[in-house]
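One such given next:

>
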Amino acid sequence: MGTPLETRAEQAEAVVDRLEDAYPDSTISLRYTDRLELLIAVILSAQCTDERVNAETEHLFEKYDGAEDYANAPQDELAADLNSITYYNNKATYIRSACETILEEHDGEVPDTMDELTELSGVGRKTANVVLQHGHDIVEGIVVDTHVQRLSRRLGLTEEEYPERIEEDLMEIVPEGDWQQFTHLCIDHGRATCTARNPDCDGCVLADLCPAEKGDSEIDLASGEPW
């Protein structure tokens, strides 16, 4: 089992430093050209891989041009255009409704506040944070996806289980200037090394700091279950 640093703040700083060295080009992997495309891509990414979303939006963004196109699209047609995406019927409903609200209440523009974004259909705090950070250059929180959730628990940065509570813990210990990049680093490391089912602890740059390192630890702190 690795030995975490004395405080969680020190642990968080070390995690960021090491992962920045390991993934110097870490950034968002969703492809988009404007704020609306970003919003739609993030809605589609819930419980779906970014790779699959990018494959789907390549043709989606060619067919639909702007909020009015999505709002006026027949439900069945838009759902059919998304049928390789998980929960595509629900996501088609969210996208149509969100675009109706954008047209009716925001002059066709994707809003730039947390409150306004989370009032859109299919948009929670995680999605809103992504849109604020990458669409409006506003960083007021940390995006907690499944990778961030898993790594932050394994690394002893939080004991919370739910994303909003995890975000609160992380915002107290991760330097504010690293809030945006912290997510990208966790995603890259979660995909490459610290996977959900079979993490490569032997090849991990954080193993000596990780209290869940499976060479010695009997418990996966992400799940609370034995390795």
Notes: The beta strands are 219-220, 225-226. The two ends are 12 Å apart (CA to CA). The CA atoms of residues 102 and 187 lie 30 Å apart. The longest strand covers residues 219-220.
